[in-house]
Amino acid sequence: MQPFVTLADLEARHPAELITLAADETTGLRDDERIEAAIGDASAQIRAILRARYSVDELSRLDADSRDTLRIDAIDIVLYRVAISFARSSDRIEKRHDEAVKRLQAIAAGKASLSFASEPGGEDAADPNRSANEVLMDAPSRVFDRRTTRDL
């Protein structure tokens, strides 16, 4: 499954912080392998939190707005994991991580929601006003109504 953030996203948003946090202890060069591992771990953590409300299929169909929202939280979680990996954590990084996790837990608890891309020709395409979390029921027609009970 696709990660919620990429190394390019991290470089674009926090280039100096990424170099400071992820410099290898021996060479002083940025360790991209450990950053990629943190990206994978953060994405797994996000999915684990959101699975309380959303299925794996739904998480694979997130629209651009929801992906952008989750990317913000993923960046904070990745930076925290990188800082922990290199023993360079700070209160500021830890606070950003904790706030990101709280936002994700709020989404999982239903205090906020994610939206999904409609599948071509699927049910979502038929009704653009339908909520992603709307309950659909398929039930047999009524057995007793005024017409069928008139003669009783």
UniProtKB/TrEMBL annotation:
InterPro entries: Phage_Mu_GpJ (IPR009752)
Protein name as it appears in the record: DUF1320 domain-containing protein
